[in-house]
Structures are given as structure tokens and as C-alpha cells.
TrEMBL record:
InterPro entries: BetI_C, Homeodomain-like_sf, HTH-type_TetR-like_transc_reg, HTH_TetR, Tet_transcr_reg_TetR-rel_C_sf. It comes from the Bacteria. This is TetR/AcrR family transcriptional regulator. Residues 25-44 bind DNA. Keywords: DNA-binding, Repressor, Transcription, Transcription regulation. PROSITE patterns: HTH_TETR_2. Residues 2-62 form the HTH tetR-type domain. Pfam families: TetR_C_6, TetR_N.
Amino acid sequence: MASRSTQILEAAARVIARRGVRGLRVEELAAEAGVSTGLIYYHFKDRTGILRHTLEFINDRAERYTRTQDPDAEPLTPREELDQVLLLELQDTPEVRENSSAWGELRASAVFDPVLREDLARATLVWVQEVAGLLGQVRPMAPAATLAASAERLTALLEGLSMRWLSGGLAIDHARTLLREAVEVELARLDRP
């Protein structure tokens, strides 16, 4: 059974995905999580604490579903690992839909919330660095600044594709094809002197 704080964070991700950050009310969160509002304040102190911890929670959950591999399977090549980490962000599963929707809502709210903006900037930087590291494993001779720029473009594209897919503006198969093509373009760009 999940800990109470995990239970609250799972509920917070659902509420944010469904109603947005502005629609997150502690009373509704408590009802969704099946706990008291006092317990939420005990674990997270205030609304900002809830948002910060929810952001960490959805990042950790994304890390799990993009890095999961059958322990009996052959190890992935660096290129396969890069593809997996990016493409598994475009899965039609409730967990990915919820995570991506909550991330998008947190991103949109950060426009008006400096504290959330800083937290999202840090989380995005970690994601970009992770993708740059994967690109560097595929193209080890590429300069660090070039890898970072490629990772920035790919993660920004992935966010946009995800939002278009989730909002019905793009079929998931097409979004995945566009992302695969973008990875090819970025890798070819990294091959240039």
C-alpha cells in the first residue's frame, strides 16, 4: 500500500491533470486522496509545498515509465535508450496521460507563479541534461554545448507534441513519427563538424 504522502501526490496529479493548478483546492484534494485536509497540511505545509512535491512526483514517475525494461532483456544500445526515454513519453496509458497533462498544467501556471517557475526551470534543466547525456552516448565526439542545444530542442518539441496529442490536435502515431524524425535530424546535426 502506498504511503499517505504518495497517496496524496497521486491524487494531486489527478486533480491537476483534470482541473489545472488553479482548480486545485485542498478540500477537493483531500476528498480525492481519501484523507483529511489536516493530513495534507501536515505532509506538505501549504499549497506551494503540494505543487512542488507533485512536480517531483510526476518527474519521478516519468523516470520510472521511460526507464523500465524487462530485466531478462538484452541491454539497450545508447540509441535505443535515447529513443525509449523520448518515445515512452508518448504512450496512450492513463499514467502517461495524467503525468503529461499535469506537467502541462504546471508549466502553464508557472507563467504567473515565480516560485513554480523556478521549480519547473530546475526540473526542465535536469530533463534537458539527461537527454543531452543520452545524446552524448550516441555521439560521444559532439561538443557539450551542441548536445545541450539538441536536447533543448527535442524536449521542447516533445512537450509540444504531447500537448497537441493530449488535446486531440495530433494522432499519437503521428506525434511519435515526428519525434523519431526530429531525433534523426538532431543526430545528423551532431555529426556535422
